[in-house]
Amino acid sequence: MTPEFVVSMASEAVKLTLLLSAPLLGVGLLVGLVIAILQATTQVQEMTLTFVPKIVCVLLALLAAAPWMLAKMTSYTSQVIATIPHVIR
């Protein structure tokens, strides 16, 4: 196992993590921004008004993106398992 191989595996893991978290973080960011604008215009500063819609929207985004996320994770895992014989040598 070479240092280049370890670095490439680690970089692939980081890329996959960022790719999988991006849709959920993006939805949370957009919902938070919309709620912040609503709160600023109406001057309603209720804390539960920010958390509940974010949680619901992120959960819905997770349900929508789950098949794609599972396919990506399965593909990466099978790739890692397939490289085990080359790592052992």
Tell me what you see in this structure.
The N and C termini lie close together (8 Å). This protein is mainly α. It is 90% helix and 0% strand. It has a domain at 25-82. The protein contains 3 helices and no strands.
Task: Summarize the structure in short.
This protein is mainly α and 89 residues long. The protein has helices at 3-42, 48-82, 84-88. It has a domain at 25-82.
Which assembly state applies to the chains in this document?
single chain
User: Any idea what the radius of gyration is?
Assistant: 19 Å
Mean pLDDT: 92
Poorly predicted runs of 5 or more residues: none
Question: Could you estimate the helical fraction of the residues in percent?
Answer: over 70%
Shape field: elongated
User: What is the tally of helical segments?
Assistant: 3
The chain-level structural class is mainly alpha
Instruction: Please trace the helix and strand order, writing H or E for each element.
Output: HHH
Could you tell me the strand content as a percent range? under 5%
Number of strands: 0
Main beta-sheet strand count, sense and barrel state: none
Q: Mind sketching the topology for me?
A:
Layout: H1 3-42, H2 48-82, H3 84-88
Helix pairs in contact: 1-2
Keywords:
mainly alpha; elongated
